[in-house]
Amino acid sequence: MEGPKTRCFTGHIVDVVARRIYGGMIVVKDGRIDSIKECDVEPSAPYYLPGFIDSHVHVESSMMTPVEFARIALQHGTIGAVCDPHEIANVMGAEGVELMLDLAKLADFRFAFGMPSCVPSCSKDIETSGYVLGPDDVDRFMKRDDIYFLAEMMNFPGVLGRDPEVMSRIASARSAGKPVDGHAPGLVGEERARYASAGISTDHECTTIETGMAAVESGMIVQIREGSAAKDYAALAPLIAAAPGMVMFCTDDCHPDDFIRGHIDRIVRRAIADGYDIMDVLTAACLTPVRHYGIPAGLLQVGDPADFITVTDLTPDFRVMKSFINGEKVFSSKGQYTASLMLERSVSVQKQLVQHLINNFNARPISVEDIARTPAEAEDIIVSSDGSLFTIHEKGPVTDEVQKIVVMDRYSGDAVPRVAYIKGFGLAKGAVAQSIAHDCHNIVAVGGNDEELVKVINRVIEMKGGVAVSDGKTMKDLPLPIGGIISPLCGHELAFRCSLLDEVIRNAGCRFHSPFITLAFMCLPVIPELKLTDKGLFDSVKFEIC
Amino acid sequence: MEGPKTRCFTGHIVDVVARRIYGGMIVVKDGRIDSIKECDVEPSAPYYLPGFIDSHVHVESSMMTPVEFARIALQHGTIGAVCDPHEIANVMGAEGVELMLDLAKLADFRFAFGMPSCVPSCSKDIETSGYVLGPDDVDRFMKRDDIYFLAEMMNFPGVLGRDPEVMSRIASARSAGKPVDGHAPGLVGEERARYASAGISTDHECTTIETGMAAVESGMIVQIREGSAAKDYAALAPLIAAAPGMVMFCTDDCHPDDFIRGHIDRIVRRAIADGYDIMDVLTAACLTPVRHYGIPAGLLQVGDPADFITVTDLTPDFRVMKSFINGEKVFSSKGQYTASLMLERSVSVQKQLVQHLINNFNARPISVEDIARTPAEAEDIIVSSDGSLFTIHEKGPVTDEVQKIVVMDRYSGDAVPRVAYIKGFGLAKGAVAQSIAHDCHNIVAVGGNDEELVKVINRVIEMKGGVAVSDGKTMKDLPLPIGGIISPLCGHELAFRCSLLDEVIRNAGCRFHSPFITLAFMCLPVIPELKLTDKGLFDSVKFEIC
């Protein structure tokens, strides 16, 4: 008869709970830590840490399935993630959330999914979304064991005004004993206190030290965000020392080509380089999210699941060597064994997925006539800037610097494209279209030439979702057949195809560093000043269709 | 009872055999072309071509397994490749060749493998190789159905002198009715005629139009090479028009990060842009290799296996849309179905492979003392230049511009590292080591600092083969556990890891565009002027160890 499986690991044990580092041997039995014995170890021995946790991320922004997301994250020493499936929920409703939950269970990874609180984020008069999740949906999901929290409560005016429907969603979470995530950009003083006192315990939208301090003082945990879009580490890093235990790290959005290069490990390296106490840094990176959300991840304590990583050292240049979940090696930087085993899992999921693609896409090809428009002498122009969610509302003539922006409902089947003008992209020679467009993920396109615009829009329609870009000569695309926002491809191939799109958009004259991210926010009505939705130009200051 | 499986494909049929293009419908039954009927088609319909063939390539240079090589090649419309497993044969002998043949059979791809003719390319007094393949080995393999030709006959002095052993290898091929590939850089006039008349029918080492014309005039087919290392298209392109039917395209070596971006399709686009007749171009790209080597690939004729590709058009910007083998779609640019099916196959092969890794690696870690050396006032210095197989022999002092080069036998277990000096790499701050080193694939390393040199060499030894590079701060590596030259990783991940190595070597001060390729040739004794092998400095002009 075979006894329980026992394995030993020797090295420098970084006990983040007890805040000490010592030489030791970890004994793992049946996937759990059976004992840890102190012993002498070589100075060159690896360091054992609890794994890193991304405390707030939309997996969809990686364009990867949860299994592939996990595989890439583990390569960076991230063993778990707190995920809000807000994007797929806007497209596919409860079915989308279920898909993410089902796929997440196939990965050796500590996923903690939340239930999106605000789907859609705007009324249907402002833009067309794929689905509406009502209070009953929220309540039903909050009771599930695999839902860990109520995800970002964006409707902060509703919270401050104690809107009954908003409060009922919060009540669903609280009666299930689960935390509620915040989203309160700029909120300070009494309003911050009132927002927190509704039972909201985190915020990932603090971008200045003032809002960060205000959040901490209201008892909220601040998620220091350093993702592909927003980068708040520089502003918020002092909180690591000022409020240890009240800080977590997150990416919010991590795009494929960025994600394959690094994840939470990058924030940790930077914080070490900046001289923050290693235990404060690792408390934010590993400990606080596990405790706050009740993630079933081990913390390198006797009795815990044997979830941990090994790193070369604790300098700003540390490398992640291995990642373990339940005592099983799920990543090794040497790659030869685990790479193929994990990839095999991922590919088998892909295969099942592509045979049962779920999507919500119903749009017919358009023609050049559909986007014809004679500009007025003084047009409303959206002035965009690189990587920014914000735009400026300008009135003026349509010059060479101005291109057309087109937004089109992708759900209803009989959509009329909306056409307006935009400045900043510099796409004089070509055009780009995509079905990644926050939050409803309709089709958004920008281009300096009507033929090219129609070509890329129709390519996105033909693919039933994805990205297409043309420089007037070459067209490249990336199909996103899962909900029009996720690809079944493996992470590195996806990242490579993104870099090809980047090349074409640069050839087309675009000067933005992050053109696709910027484009994705050009229809988000909740952010000022001027946006275009499938219902028309939206003045986000007056909060109305122009 | 189910009848034979029938599918129809409609578009512009590019009949390279009859040299005409017409609208038509291809009827495929049970994997073969049953009929082609002329019919009217939309101008925007796809173009059907026989797939492209790489007429000479060492799969090992892609660092990919044959299955993964096939998957990436099919993405570029290449449906077959004429392969010389010379690298793995030098490391693993007949077992290595068998491995490649076995793996190739798992791919939906038209592989035509040859038997390496010259393993090793030098005597064992000059360098240590993993294996020696004798005339009997060659004869045994030439009789096999899955061996299509005798691979590049590098020993051209032996051919010109009608060396009996060399001639017996050629005789083995000829008595089996199989072609013999040439390798005769610079050979013209009577010598070219004498080389050809030994029964050698191709050459991929023509780098000038003069040698190219000389080869054609001697009845040899010229392979126009445009790979990651050598680029001969510019010199040889006129042969496409001057000698149609006597030209093929090849890459010889295609490295991962280059290969994922393009393959034979790039040569075809360039030739179309240069105005060559499309039928001449496609004859070289598709037709001639199939006929010359007897590759069992279809040529879009009734009765042929249904192997073909579809492209958007025949302009210099054409895109490959789909690839078919035996009527099965094995690549689609939309990716969602075939990507995961092909990748699944590849990963399952990887999984089997990593459980039964074959290798030939026996070396012990070294210390700084092992590479200590006090430079003489006038040292022999290897002067290297970017991407070149050639070096210059300089005598002079060891200045700041000069670094150490170390070569170490990786087979015998008791090797003493050889140390010499090299100029050009500019690796003042760091070091690089790898087990890709033509042709014997011993360990070669260059570095400006002894500690770093030892670190990267020992990392390669610890991995039992691979690449390691350090900029004095960060070390990155790429394990190559299959023979120390091939990775089980998928192509895109491999390419990504290569780009990380690139970043580190650039940080280390290297100014070469292709440092790893250049390094791989620093021990190849057959190319002048000065090289370092595991036996010592080799003067390739005098052809002796210094």
What this model shows, in words?
Two copies of one chain form a homodimer. Helix content of chain A is 30%, strand content 26%. The first copy, chain A, is α/β, with parallel strands linked by helices and 546 residues long. The model of chain A has no long low-confidence stretch (mean pLDDT 94). The A-B interface holds A 260, 317, 319, 333-337, 339-341, 343-344, 347-348, 350-351, 353-354, 357, 463, 473-475, 477, 479, 481, 487-493, 495-496 and B 260, 317, 319, 333-337, 339-341, 343-344, 347-348, 350-351, 353-354, 357, 463, 473-475, 477, 479, 481, 487-493, 495-496.
Characterize this entry briefly.
The structure is a homodimer of 546-residue chains. By secondary structure, chain A is of the alpha/beta class. Chain A contains 17 helices and 26 strands.
Features:
homodimer; 546 residues; alpha/beta; 8-stranded parallel sheet; 8-stranded mixed sheet; 26 strands; globular
Distance between the termini of chain A: 76 Å
Mean pLDDT of chain A: 94
Portion in beta strands of chain A:
25-35%
Largest interface: A-B, 36 and 36 residues
Contiguous uncertain segments of 5+ residues of chain A: none
